[in-house]
């Protein structure tokens, strides 16, 4: 019989033997990097979060405005709302009468969100918030921007979101894609594709299976953005993306060296790098 033995430092694959003196032998031993807590990640980036995401948020807002088609009287929830930067802009641009319900489990992100106009923070996970039957048919719009990959139980969350919508209301989910002209270093590419795949899980058959009637559409949108080389490297070093917590400091430095050697050796630190970014928007409309 083979079993896995794990501590915070090492993982070992252990095989039992017939030998009474040595009942077990270790057949594989490696350093184990414990999975990091997602709340720990956001606690670490919170102070620089709005600065790190400024240029992409500017790209997301026109796309979200188009896809959400907000009316002043709409009641809106933002799931995995982070620092509330997106909710604030949507609130101001669409002249909403009510603040946006910003659902996010990170206390630190919510402390920043609380300072912003048009934000009503709810410190809960999507799982906790959308399992409450009292929010049934409460919202006209629910959005999730770059947060669906964190849903621990996506089927239950999608079902809860659809139940929380009024008939004719819709859920808009924005996720990243690997279609960006900003080169990624090798170590991060695979991690990012896994993360974006998770955000794509919502589909009509899935929602039908869980008893929700909806029309689903998927559409890609592109926008232009720019970042200085020094900010790009700072973003990596501070692990601006949660997937980067799976890389050690050395692996990140190696990735930065790779980018420097292959693409940016002639770019000055304060020079802007222009790039195109493509996101995927999934829209699920609740059918009456
Ligand atoms: C990449 S950030 C996106 C924040 C914001 N939507 C934006 O685009 O700037 C992901 C957010 O999802 C939140 N999150 C993590 N797990 C969650 C869950 N189970 N339910 C809801 N939000 C979650 C994190 O705390 C974090 O603020």
UniProtKB/TrEMBL annotation:
Pfam families: Methyltransf_11. Residues 78-172 form the Methyltransferase type domain. It comes from the Eukaryota. This is Methyltransferase type 11 domain-containing protein. It comes from Porites evermanni.
């Amino acid at each position: 019989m083979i079993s896995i033995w794990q501590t915070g430092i090492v993982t070992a694959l252990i095989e039992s033997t017939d030998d009474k003196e040595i009942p077990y032998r270790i057949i594989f031993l490696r350093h184990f990097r414990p999975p990091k807590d997602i709340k720990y990640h956001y606690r670490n980036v919170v102070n620089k979060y709005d600065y790190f995401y400024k240029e992409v948020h500017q790209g997301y807002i026109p796309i979200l405005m188009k896809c959400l088609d907000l009316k002043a009287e709409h009641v809106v929830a933002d799931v995995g709302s982070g620092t509330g930067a997106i909710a604030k802009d949507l609130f101001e641009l669409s002249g909403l009468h009510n603040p946006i319900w910003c659902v996010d489990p990170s206390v630190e992100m919510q402390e920043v969100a609380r300072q912003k106009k048009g934000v009503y923070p709810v410190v809960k996970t999507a799982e906790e918030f959308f399992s409450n039957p009292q929010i049934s048919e409460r919202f006209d719009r629910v959005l999730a921007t770059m947060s669906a990959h964190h849903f621990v139980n996506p089927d239950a969350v999608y079902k809860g979101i659809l139940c929380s919508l009024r008939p004719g209301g819709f859920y808009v989910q924005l996720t990243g894609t690997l279609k960006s002209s900003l080169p990624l270093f090798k170590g991060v590419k695979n991690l990012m594709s896994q993360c974006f795949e998770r955000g794509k899980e919502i589909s009509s058959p899935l929602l039908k299976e869980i008893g929700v009637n909806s029309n689903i559409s998927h559409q890609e949108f592109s926008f232009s953005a720019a970042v200085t080389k020094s900010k790009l490297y700072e973003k990596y070093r501070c692990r601006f993306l949660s997937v980067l917590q799976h890389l050690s400091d050395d692996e990140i430095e190696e990735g930065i060296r790779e980018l420097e050697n292959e693409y940016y050796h002639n770019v000055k630190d304060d020079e802007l790098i222009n790039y195109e970014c493509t996101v995927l928007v999934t829209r699920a409309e609740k059918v009456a």
